[in-house]
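Is zinc ion placement plausible here? Inputs below.
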Amino acid sequence: MERIDVHLGQRSYPIHIGSGLLQNGDGLIRELLPPRVLLISNEVVAPLYLESATALLSRCGCQIDTLVLPDGERYKTFDTLNLIFTKALELGLGRDCSFVALGGGVIGDMVGYAAASYQRGVQFCQFPTTLLAQVDSSVGGKTAVNHPLGKNMIGAFHQPQLVLMDMDTLSTLPAREFAAGMAEVIKYGILWDGDFFAWLEQHQAELKALQVDALSYAIGRCCQIKAEVVAEDETERGVRALLNLGHTFGHAIEAEQGYGNWLHGEAVATGIVLAAQLAQQLGWLEQVQVDRISALISAFDLPLNPPQEMGFEQFMPHMRRDKKALQGIVRLILPTAIGTTEVVSSVTEDQLRQLFDTL
Ligand SMILES: NC(=O)c1ccc[n+]([C@@H]2O[C@H](COP(=O)([O-])OP(=O)(O)OC[C@H]3O[C@@H](n4cnc5c(N)ncnc54)[C@H](O)[C@@H]3O)[C@@H](O)[C@H]2O)c1
Ligand SMILES: O=C(O)C(=O)C[C@@H](O)[C@H](O)[C@H](O)COP(=O)(O)O
Ligand SMILES: [Zn+2]
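Reply from A.M.:
I modeled the complex. Tokens:
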């Protein structure tokens, strides 16, 4: 069992990582929970883990109600959010309740945003059940829903009270979803920690086999990096933007292809490769580093290339709307080495056209 703290003054919170925490984690979370809880999951995760999560929360002394939402990225919408608000109002929940998100990043982002806005803000907790949610989305307080014109366009920064991640839940995760989570894991190595990237290169087999020591090291390292970055820059005024490596391209793919057709992690994987290729084109990254990045992404069966039908004309409208853009100028996160990245606003549209033309 590992505990990592996100240091944010009064909004600080613990991340608990371990095996069996949905069965026996009550001692870790009891003191942080209010008496009234709305436990929210989806149609896929609920049959697997709702019962143990309910039992855990009830051993903590909470009065629990549950809500099961439809599954998938295409339901990360205002309409689904409204199901949460309606349920909470029907139950008569007040500001002293907590919402608990049991599921992957879609559930976590939606429940977090519902908590940020219900009666102008209630507490929430993250019980992440995908690799992607454990290494990334459950930590840091970015919450959102999608808009047809852009990913995560409507949202808020709202930190959870606690994050409880039971690594055992990964045993039921489909292989494609595990790989999608690995895209964000690889991202941390490139943007922050070259030694971690090298460790990932050396431990591919153990990770694919869900070997517990390798998995817990990888999840822990990602959470440490994210906690450090978020503590330094909670609302993305500076260094936090680095966590967006691959996302300007990736979000364009997700929106253009229709939410859910490309998984978030798949789109980010391709986005990271595009960022590396662009950095190489600009003379900032050596080809050998691009090759290492592509090789590791490919080793986890993640896509290296965007959809064939997507070129400059299809990417650009999405990229100009990216949340990092300032006065219509695209800002990109580009690697300068494995382990070091920079926020760059000097890339011209001609340079981007050249990137897509050479694919
Ligand atoms: N807030 C953030 O900082 C942040 C960071 C990264 C990604 N995200 C968001 O997270 C979302 C992607 O999250 P995701 O990859 O977890 O997708 P997801 O939430 O859609 O989960 C993937 C699939 O796995 C199922 N599932 C979840 N846990 C399972 C389990 N243990 N066993 C079997 N099936 C399980 C889900 O029901 C779903 O079908 C995107 O919307 C992305 O924008 C947010
Ligand atoms: O936590 C962050 O900051 C991130 O950028 C993490 C990303 O992996 C995540 O996908 C995030 O939701 C993207 O944020 P957005 O602001 O580009 O929507
Ligand atoms: Zn992401």
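Short version: The domain at 199-357 is CATH 1.20.1090.10 (Dehydroquinate synthase-like, alpha domain).
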